[in-house]
Specification:
It is found in: Membrane. About 65% of the residues lie in helices and about 5% in strands. The protein is built from ten helices and two strands; from the N terminus they run αααααββααααα. A hairpin with a 2-residue loop joins β1 and β2. The radius of gyration is 25 Å and the shape is flat. About 25% of the residues are buried.
Amino acid sequence: MTDAGPLTAATAVHSPMDPYATRVQASGIRFLYALNPLAKLAAPLPAMAVLVFVRDAATPAAFLLLAYAVLLVGVDFTRRLAAVLFLALPLSALVIGFGFALWTDPSRVDQSIVVWQLGGWTMYGGALAVGGATGLRLSAIVALTLIAGLSTTGPDLVRATVQQLRVPYRIGYTALAAFRFVPRFGHELDVIRQAHRVRGAHGGRGPLAAAARWFGYVVPLMAGAIRHAERVALAMDARAFGAHPDRTERYLVPWRVRDTVFVLAFWAVSAAILTAFFPWGLS
């Protein structure tokens, strides 16, 4: 059953998308949804690798702005995206930066500026600069990973690795089956909770009642997981899973010209940023 009605043989063969994969319905300007998942992983990967070794603040700040620009244009702007970009990442950068500033060895930083003193302990401006650069660096890496994370479904990523990277389908489709287990377990957990609520089992408030409720969920959830795993194994055996080195793909995730253009353009911008800040970016 799909959102548009029952899944018949005719609609299944001619449908260009997987009816069981959660996809975001967005306008055409949100280009990241139409790209190959591997392109969205390959484009920021060199920048992420270089950011591990940079020590200045300008280079990660530039990559952070680049990731923000790509995300704001390429994915659908939602409250979740706004919370991540404008609340979670900045706060994380501040907390991480301040933490690293506290841990930095004062003898290895610039001591010309004293921020504050508490007894015999002194916070120098050089320590804050090191901590701020570290926080920016980690935030830039996280922001670059969101380019693929916020616009790619798990099934599409698995199919792309099987079709383009030639990952054995025995590994890829096993991972795809694992992706299917998560929403299945969520549904079964809801059913178990409703059944316990109807029977009035493990009622009450407080930590002990909550622990009793969760222990009551474990056994039926494990039983349901075992039954579901057995059904999946039987279905895979019935379809001769693993009997042949290759299988026919029902849903294709092709690599198009736009994927190549996106990767090359992102690499070019990354190279320009590194060229501009290279004298101060690496140590």
